[in-house]
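Researcher: Re-running this chain for the archive, since the previous output was lost when a drive failed. Same request as before.
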Amino acid sequence: MPVRSVLAALALAPWLLAQEPTPSEPPRTAEERCAALLAAALEQNRAWPLLEDLAKVAPHRLSGSPGLARAVEWARARMAAIGLDAVRLQEVAVPHWERGEVASFTVATGAGEESFPILALGGSVGTPSEGLAAELVMVRSFEDLRALGERARGRIVFFNRPMPRALQNTFQAYGQAVPQRSSGASEAARAGGVAALVRSMTTRIDDHPHTGAMHYADGVAKVPSAAISTRGAERLAALLAKGPVVGRLRLDCRTLPDAPSHNVLGELRGRELPDEIVVIGAHLDAWDVGHGAHDDGAGVAHCLEAVRLLRELGLRPRRTIRVVLFTNEENGLRGARAYAELAAKEGRRHVAAFETDRGGGMPVGLTASYTGAELEALREAIQPLRDRGMGQLVGGGSGGADVSVLKPMGVPVFDLITAAHRYFNFHHADTDRVENVDERELAVGAAVVAWFAHLLAER
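Model: Regenerated structure tokens:
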């Protein structure tokens, strides 16, 4: 959608137009600001229509796609409508992978041919047009695969390691299982396998496969790789328990030359130290299934609504708060690296960077790169969040993926923690849709981002 069309659409949405700061006295204390921001976010409920509108304009926003280009123009128009300063695009060359139209996996059984729900993993090569047929071998770890030796040669390697349900922190559970998705194809190829089939990254048992990025190791043959739904994985494991299984995989995905894209930047200029920057960020790209609502449309809505709320309440920060909506987080971090280069060159001091990329669930706290006395000082400073059950604080962190590249430059980095038991039910799947985000939880998240960004900008 061209800029002119996006701006025309904005004219039909008065709730998105720039809000002049209220003439009443702004809240003075940290407690007053927290209460006021939460009340305004919940009462006005502007984060939710932002997320709905993004999903309508650009539900599929994978790097290199027309959807991401529409989302970039949407974001620029929204920042202008809110009234941010220095709204601009930063050009970034991004990977361009396309899923294609064909994704099927079938096995022959005594009752005939049985189909399983799959999605190609991002970056995978395709199969021959007629597909690829081979006997399957099931493993739960790379160690299991290596122990098979020659028995893996010529096979489709089925990685069936579940995300461990016993872990309360679902991000830790994800971290334990995700290497089979990201590196499984190359590990299968090293063992002589002809393809990799990976159990989806979710604890829920259902028929929705979850995609995500995979990477090929240098010097190793590239074999196709796909995610199978968890219910499909359970069924396939049961078939393998009865005897040999031959599967046929068909994928027509492909990688094209890099494509142009952009980070989108806008500022709420500081009243005293405008050349000192606090970044609040989220990623604008998303996978090509579902709406990218939790990942990371919710973060986009958090950031845009946060700066609107600060303007609405007359809370002009001491330092500049810069919103950065990053491109290409999902399959490359090109936007993050490009922004780090800009930060190093522009001569404006970055004092903090805060990311929201854990979905639209209820905020429960923050991660910080701080340790020791700095962490304890921050713990005291976020008392208003602690009083409201949102004050969990985890030190020694690296921030979210996009702001993590600023940490080696000496920038303190932070990450919003949300209640995430349900997050991986939707992550990278067709179920990541707007209707699976709670509008009140999304509003609270925006208020927390606004409050903490203002705190960082005032310190």
